[in-house]
Amino acid sequence: MDALLHSPSSMAKRPCPSQNPRIPNPNHSDTDHLLHSLLRHSDSSPLSVDLSFDRLLDSSASDSDQTLLIDRALKLGSALLEAAKRSARKRASKHNSLAWVLPPDLTIKVFSMLDTQSLCYAAATCSMFNKCAMDPSCYSNIDLTTVVPKVNNAVVSTMIHRAGRALQALLRRLHLYNIERMDNSSLCGALSACPSLLDLEIVGLHVELRQTLVSVSAKCHLIERLFFESSKTGRDDSLKSQTCLDLVNNCPNLTSLALRGFKLHDYKVRILVKGFRKLKYVDFSTSYSISGTFIRNLGNSMGGNLLEVLILRDCMHLKEVEVSRLLKAIISGDFQFLKHLDISNREGLASESDWYDRCYNSSAIPIKQLLEERPDICFLAEFPSEGSYIEIDQMFDSEINSDISLPSQMSSHTSDGSMFLSFSESSYNSDHGSGNEDGRDAGYVIYEESSDEVDFLAV
Fold first, then answer.
1. Using one digit for the tens of pLDDT, what is the confidence trace for 183-196?
2. Which of 113, 171, 195, 355 fits 350 for a cystine, CB–CB 3.0-4.6 Å?
């Protein structure tokens, strides 16, 4: 061992792969012999190795010699460890190439069908899988959904960089759930690289509705499905009429729209629902300020007549009279393609005169007649019995004293956006109006029941 530690040849660095191949050297046989002798003692007990090394140190003439000996031992141990790891990887790679029968192109094809988490696991398995998993085509669908926040900006950045330049042509579906510290600029920057996006789902991110829709409108012109759930129910009042107009004009292929938990005024919602000519699915669950007036005369117009699913569950300001008007319109022949309607409300519907006055039964709603005329419709109208929930005044008193908004319970849904049923446990942020009196844009128009109302949409 002493000869090996002091051997000058043992201190030579292992050439890196970029250097010239090693040339056979007769002196290498001496090193090989010494290394072989050392490895023959690998089964020696740690205690015997310690005692032997201590004897070598004691035999050193000076303190500097002892320091040099220790340093050489550390370097030799590190070199042996790295050499063993490299050889193990080389053998494992050779074994994997023999055991895995698929060629790289088919392996990449298989990996492109995996979800994002499974793809990352596969990439960490071996160098061969890692090389295949780095192919940009494996990242055409990036799904970073998680119930518990585990994904941060670094993970999103890694996924996008792995997708490379091909991201613009490949990425079709992007789902982002509960990403810590992801702000408006980060999200907008990511969306700017996704012009071919068809499906965008955002849940639990602290980002603004208006800025997000501006980015979608400017960069994602092919989008077909948009699902956006607010992290703070009822507190995001950022949406503007012009933003709605731009989204309608720039994203004409949208067929599924879900904006849940935002403060949405009827005239803005009407711009969206009436403007998208291909819209089939709408979900405004837990949205604040919607009274239902946006639905008037939509069933026989170019926008809204193709609706198949309309979900207005737990909309605090949804009025009983507007729901009744909607059902009568359906009975009269409007909304011919409608298959699913949900107006359930855990706080009851608002009365026409005062939204503090809640309606807990459906006596004024022609449900029986609706089901007789349209038996093909799945109609949900679940209301609590009167007095079974906390009083409205008490609820708002508690909200004034607290800024905490409970997160919505995530509802199950299909990937194509065919069904979303919200069972929100979120508290509402409120003011004392109906929700449609404040924040009106300059272009605000009160909608009458006449069929020739002013159309906000650009020609």
1. 888 888 888 878 88
2. 355
∠ CA 258-271-357, rounded to 5°: 70
Burial class (CB in 10 A: 0-12, 13-18, 19+), 124: exposed
In a domain, 364, yes or no: yes
Please tell me the pTM assigned to this model: 0.57
What range defines the domain where residue 315 resides? 224-459
Alpha-carbon span 190 to 182, nearest angstrom: 11
Q: Which residues pair with 297 in a beta bridge?
A: none
What's the pLDDT tens digit per position in 32-91? 777 777 777 777 788 878 888 888 888 887 888 888 888 888 888 888 888 888 888 888
DSSP state of 185: H
119 and 249 both lie in a single domain: no
* 139 in Cβ contact with 162 (< 8 Å): yes
Residue 246 lies in a domain: yes
Helix (H, G, I), strand (E, B) or coil at 243: helix
- Closest by CA to 410, choosing from 401, 429, 423, 398, is 423
- Taking residue 264's Cβ as centre, other Cβ atoms within 10 Å add up to 27
Nearest CA-CA partner of 162 in 131, 124, 136, 142:
136
Residue 226, phi then psi, degrees to nearest 5: -130, 120
Query: How many domains does the structure of the chain reveal?
Result: 2
Judged by DSSP in three states, 407 sits in: coil
Rounded to the nearest 10 degrees, how much is the dihedral formed by the CA atoms of 272, 447, 418, 244? 10
Q: Which amino acid is at 50?
A: D
Nearest alpha-carbon partner for 276 in 254, 256, 297, 298: 254
Question: What are the distances in angstroms from CA 264 to CA 112, 220, 261, 375, 400?
Answer: 38, 22, 9, 31, 21
Q: Are 331 and 323 in contact (CB under 8 A)?
A: no
Cβ atoms of 209 and 239 closer than 8 Å: yes
- For residue 146 the two structure tokens come to 């998680």
Upper half-sphere CA count for residue 434 (Cβ side, 13 Å): 19
Which helix (H) or strand (E) covers residue 177, if one does? strand 173-177
Q: Indicate the residue type of 39.
A: L
What is the enclosing helix (H) or strand (E) of 33? helix 28-40
- The helix or strand, by DSSP H or E, that contains position 358, with its residue range, turns out to be strand 358-359
Residues belonging to the chain: 459
Q: What is the CATH number of the domain that holds 124?
A: 1.20.1280
